[in-house]
Specification:
Elements lengths: L13 E2 L2 E2 L3 H16 L5 H13 L3 H29 L1 H17 L7 H18 L2 H11 L4 H30 L1 H22 L28 H12 L3 H31 L4 H26 L4 H18 L10 H13 L4 H12 L3 H30 L3 H20 L19
Antiparallel strand pairs: 1-2
Amino acid sequence: MAVGPLVRPYRVQHHGLVKRIHPAWLVAAVAFVALVGAAGFRATPGVMLHPLHEEFGWSLGTISLAVSINLLLFGLTAPFAAALMERFGIRRVVAYALLLVSAGSGLTVFMRHSWELIALWGVLVGLGTGSMALAFVATITGRWFVKRRGLVTGVLTAGGAAGQLVFLPLLALLVDARGWRAAALTVAAAALVVVPLVLWRLRDHPSELGVTAYGADSDLPPAPVAPGGAARRALGALRDASRVPAFWLLAGGFAICGATTNGLIGTHFIPAAHDHGMTEPVAASLLALIGLFDIVGTIASGWLTDRMDSRILLGWYYALRGASLLVLPALFAATVRPSMVVFILFYGLDWVATVPPTVALCREYFGASGPVVFGWVFASHQFGAAIAATTTGLLRDRLGNYDLAWYVAGGLSISAAALSLLLFRARRGLPVPAPVAVAAA
């Protein structure tokens, strides 16, 4: 990447009463919009499971398989996408990712067979959303921010929740009034319309604008690109990280995080509520409320991450999530009761509050390799989500209800709290691997 002849620490300047805003905030805003645009598909499976089942006769297990492949690729793509962003630039990778999401969602209106659903929902959209995953957030915050990293990580992570909030009620109404194809085309259009903004305003590194990262006291030129392709850098980061016990503790906890959010609640909450007589638009509105409260919870988690030990935060988040899942089966009913509203509020605040402290710990343990290592930790998140999405669908087909899935998820969440607290044992004297150049820390 070409660097201008002069890169200066950014200084706030006044022109009369007008204060210049550091360009890092503009980049973060564009990244937020891009994440919202890509998040439309995250709301799609929950409102489409029953319509696809009714039209094509596919079992919930078969449809959940497509969701699982999507979730798995969503995670496995992330570390390679982080390396590709270093090699080819953030702007280019994000633009292509949005095009893949748009194509994968839009082409479903022509499908006739279940393998086409797997190819489009699973493969195309999985690759696209994976390139827009949380490793993208880690890359943006690593390059553009020194101060307020935790807060910005929380805000950008909340972009996915904002997308869910925006799209879920709309998609549920579209499915109810015009069928699932209208919803699929809406998601495709939402991803496509963001591409021009990304190409116009997203920037790869502060040096392109002749400034340094927000809060930096000295020049922060781009990290040199390590020799070899993106795959080699991503796999090298995994090799080095796998020698550190903290990596496996983080990955194990995050796998459970994915199983209990995207894989379970995100995919099966609406069908489970429908089983108890609740209409899909009402259930979708409840899931959208989780997205609303998640925005608050994730931003607050980012603020806390800048001030508290991330290990303690993760322990509390996972333990409280487990307790809420254990009581969920008793809360379902044909109408929305106050107890369900309390669960939605509580679970929403905790939904992806785990992300800011996990990103911070990856940076603490792995330095400049943090974004790519977090990509692998996030891959474990999606691996857990994929397993949960499929197994939960199969359990529903076999048992006729979701109760066992909620109880197992609650127990797993409590075990994730224990894994997080074990990170204290690896806090001192870490054998930090040699950095894989992905971003300026």
